[in-house]
Structure formats: C-alpha cells, structure tokens
C-alpha cells in the first residue's frame, strides 16, 4: 500500500516536463527528495526506496514528493540540470532534500533514514508553522 502511494505521487507529475520544470512547479507547494543513482538495480537506491515506501503516510503529511533520477533513464536536459544545480558527480548514489522555498536543505551520498529526514523537516520553521508547533 505505501509503495503504491509513492508510485501515485510519481505518476502525478507530467513526465513530459524536464526535471527543472517539475521542480519549479513544486516551489512553495512541496518539499522534494531527489534520489539519484547510476542504475535502478543499485543497492543504495533500492534501500532508499524501501525506507520511503514504508513511511508513505508520513511522506504525504509533510507535502513531500520523491523524484527518482536514474542516470540510465535521464534525458540530456535532466542530466545537465542535475550537474549544474546539484553539483553531483555521476556514478554514485546521491540524495537531496529541497525545501518548499526551493533551496537544498540536505545532501547525502548514502541513503537517508526516514527518522533523520523527518527530524530535519520537522525542525524547519515552515513545517513547525504548518503543524502549529513552535
């Protein structure tokens, strides 16, 4: 069921748009996790997807959207955007959290546990305002 939620989130995006356009459309609406890997079969990628699929409800509660960027499936425009905006080095796993303001809040070259991700999000002033916690 939780995996289905993540799949539905991915389907909600217009895949005709470039990665840059999709990210622009989410500013001030959603927090975004971008998960990059060279191949979908990478163990770190699979682990990150597993962890996120297990906490689908918490992902949705935080207005969080997940975008998978598998190098083998990226368009030239998307690969260029990743390199320019995120300063990533191809051929290894990378995880970015982008806040609703469009700014990068977390970068990791290892899978990020949900409790670490949610702890960071929940400490952000915008999230505290959303939940009424100060």
- Rounded mean pLDDT score: 88
Q: How does the overall form come out from the CA principal axes? A: globular
Class from secondary-structure proportions:
alpha+beta
The spatial strand order of the largest sheet comes to 2-1-3-4
Largest sheet: 4 strands, mixed
Order of helices and strands: HHEHHEHEEHH
What separation lies between the terminal Cα atoms?
33 Å
Number of helices: 7
Q: How many beta-strand segments?
A: 4
Give the low-confidence spans: 3-14
Query: What percent strand?
Result: 15-25%
Helix content: 40-55%
Evaluate the radius of gyration: 14 Å
Keywords: Signal
Protein name: DUF4174 domain-containing protein
InterPro entries: DUF4174
Characterize this entry briefly:
By secondary structure, the chain is an alpha+beta fold.
Describe the fold and architecture.
With 134 residues, the chain is α+β, with helices and mostly antiparallel strands. The chain is 47% helix and 18% strand. A hairpin with a 5-residue loop joins strand 3 (94-98) and strand 4.
Task: Note the main attributes of this structure.
134 residues, 47% helix, disordered N terminus, 4-stranded mixed β-sheet
């Amino acid at each position: 069921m939780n995996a289905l939620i993540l799949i539905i989130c991915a389907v909600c995006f217009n895949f005709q748009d470039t990665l840059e356009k999709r990210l622009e459309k989410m500013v001030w609406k959603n927090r975004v996790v971008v998960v990059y890997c060279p191949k979908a079969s990478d163990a770190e990628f699979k682990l990150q997807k597993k962890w996120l699929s297990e906490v689908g409800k918490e992902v949705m509660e935080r207005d969080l959207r997940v975008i998978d960027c598998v190098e083998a499936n990226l368009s030239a425009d998307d690969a260029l955007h990743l390199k320019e905006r995120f300063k990533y080095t191809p051929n290894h796993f990378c995880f970015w959290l982008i806040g609703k303001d469009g700014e990068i809040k977390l970068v990791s070259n290892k899978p990020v546990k949900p409790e670490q991700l949610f702890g960071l999000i929940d400490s952000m002033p915008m999230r505290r305002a959303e939940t009424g916690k100060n």
